[in-house]
Design a protein that fits this description.
There is one protein chain. This protein is α/β, with parallel strands linked by helices. It folds into three domains: about 100 residues, Rossmann fold (3-Layer(aba) Sandwich); about 60 residues; about 180 residues, P-loop containing nucleotide triphosphate hydrolases (Rossmann fold). Helices cover about 45% and strands about 15% of the residues. The chain is built from 13 helices and ten strands. The strands form two sheets. Strands 6-7-5-8-9-10 form a six-stranded mixed beta sheet, sandwiched between helices. It has a four-stranded parallel beta sheet with strand order 2-1-3-4, with helices on both faces. A hairpin with a 2-residue loop joins strand 6 and strand 7. The longest helix has about 45 residues. The C terminus is likely disordered. The structure holds guanosine-5'-triphosphate and magnesium ion. Guanosine-5'-triphosphate binds next to helix 7.
Length: about 400
């Protein structure tokens, strides 16, 4: 990745879906160490099926990168199809990545545990597989124009496919082992009562865990600093909880990447309470969008029945004259909310009282079935987006 430090960012205006978040993309490029040299905006109602962008923009990029194409990475603030990525890099002779590959780079950069490294390897393997498949298809199509190329294409692809399946199976096997060990630790934790800190990436989840449990885990102004769950003991007024920090959420996360982290995220299902952290210092539309993304991901995991408290963090960054009205608006939209600063400790006592009154009562949970959660999230199967739980939670306490 760092072999290609110069980035040209491409954004499509009027893109139908998903709408890009420019600032978030700048944050991602910075996190990955890219030096942004140019932002090119393509005005187009719908993306081109072959190249995503039009001929004019293609030539413009080619002109820019012609002198030293090896130095550049062209980054799309969208998710492209494997064929589009292949066509673009063939045509422009530069490295081309889209939003999901950039997120993957951040994951690779920040992963520290064996489990997160394996999960990321699995996601990369799948994305590279799709890319390679379309590359072979396009190449064979070019060589055999107008003729039936199916048989030949499959021949070229077969050994790659075999290799892919072998590597996939071996990663999955190792992940299953890790998960077995985690299952044993989890049984002990569930008895004590777990409160999970969840929410959009960079919202301040780790900062909250740190201040609650006097920890010093990495908390930085970067996306996806945390890629693994960490649990620490937290005591308040004679009551002990275990507080778990989790992997952050992001908008428009492709299913491949979501699936890679599904088992880690599904740890949330074992909690008796959820603290949903939202950065309140951002513009209101962003606050609401990130809240919606977080709720959608919690629904995908199947965690909507777990008692939840909305924690609007970074209140110290809201200008004092706006604070009251911001709080009132958000309280009306999202009842059951607390406003805090994990940095200054403001309102922390209110949060602690709320945790005590809302989450003290243990939820009665059934144990997951023998089949592990990861087994249910097969790589080529769609993730269940119906919000159904992967295991049954009996009589969740609703207080
Ligand atoms: N001003 C201010 N900054 C905060 C507050 N809480 C967290 N931050 C800062 O926000 C940034 C992100 O905090 P993290 O704790 O890493 O956020 P996170 O949700 O764990 O992020 P990921 O692990 O990357 O998903 C860091 O620079 C923190 O110092 C707060 O209440 N006020
Ligand atoms: Mg974190």
């Amino acid at each position: 990745m760092v072999e290609h430090p110069l980035a040209i960012l491409i954004e499509l205006e009027n893109a139908i879906r998903p709408p890009y978040n420019h600032d978030e993309m700048l944050g991602m490029l910075k996190t990955c160490g890219y030096q942004l040299v140019e932002v090119m905006v393509q005005k187009r109602q719908t993306p081109s099926a072959r190249f995503f962008i039009g001929e004019g923009k293609l030539s413009e990029i080619q002109e820019k990168t012609a002198e030293d194409s090896g130095q550049y990475t062209v980054v799309f603030n969208h998710n492209l199809t494997p064929t589009q990525i292949h066509n673009l890099s063939e045509r422009m002779k530069v490295r081309v990545i889209d939003r999901k590959f950039l997120i993957l780079e951040i994951f690779e950069l920040h992963s520290t545990t064996r489990e997160s490294k394996l999960q990321i390897q699995l996601a990369r393997l799948q994305l590279e597989y799709a890319l390679r498949k379309s590359e072979v298809r396009e190449r064979v199509k070019g060589e055999h124009q107008g003729r039936d190329f199916k048989g030949k294409g499959e021949g070229i692809f077969e050994s790659f496919r075999r290799d892919f399946r072998k590597r996939e199976a071996s990663i999955r096997e190792e992940l299953r082992e890790i998960e077995k060990q985690r299952g044993n630790q989890r049984k002990l934790r569930v008895k004590q009562g777990v409160v999970s800190i969840v929410g959009y990436t960079n919202a301040g989840k780790t900062a909250l865990l740190n201040i609650l449990t006097h920890e010093n885990l990495p908390s930085r102004d970067e996306l996806f600093t945390t890629l693994t769950t960490t649990t620490r003991q937290y005591d308040y007024k004679g009551q002990s909880f275990l507080v778990t920090d989790t992997v952050g959420f992001i908008a428009d996360l492709p299913e491949d990447l979501l699936k890679a982290f599904m088992t880690t995220l599904q740890e949330i299902l074992y909690s008796q309470g959820i603290l949903l952290i939202i950065d309140v210092s951002e513009p209101k539309d962003q606050v609401i969008k990130k809240m919606k993304v977080s709720q959608e991901i919690l629904a995908k995991i199947g965690a909507m029945d777990i008692p939840l408290l909305n924690v609007f963090n970074k209140m110290d960054l809201v200008p004092p004259e706006k604070l009251q009205s911001t709080m009132e608006t958000l309280q009306n939209l999202f009842p059951n909310s607390v406003f805090i600063s994990a940095l200054t400790g403001e309102n922390l006592k209110i949060l602690k009282e709320q945790v005590l009154s809302s989450f003290s009562k243990p939820r009665e949970m059934a144990q997951p079935t023998e089949q592990s959660n990861r087994d249910k999230v097969k790589m080529n199967e769609p993730v269940d987006v119906s919000g159904e739980k992967t295991f049954h939670v009996k009589n969740p306490s609703k207080n």
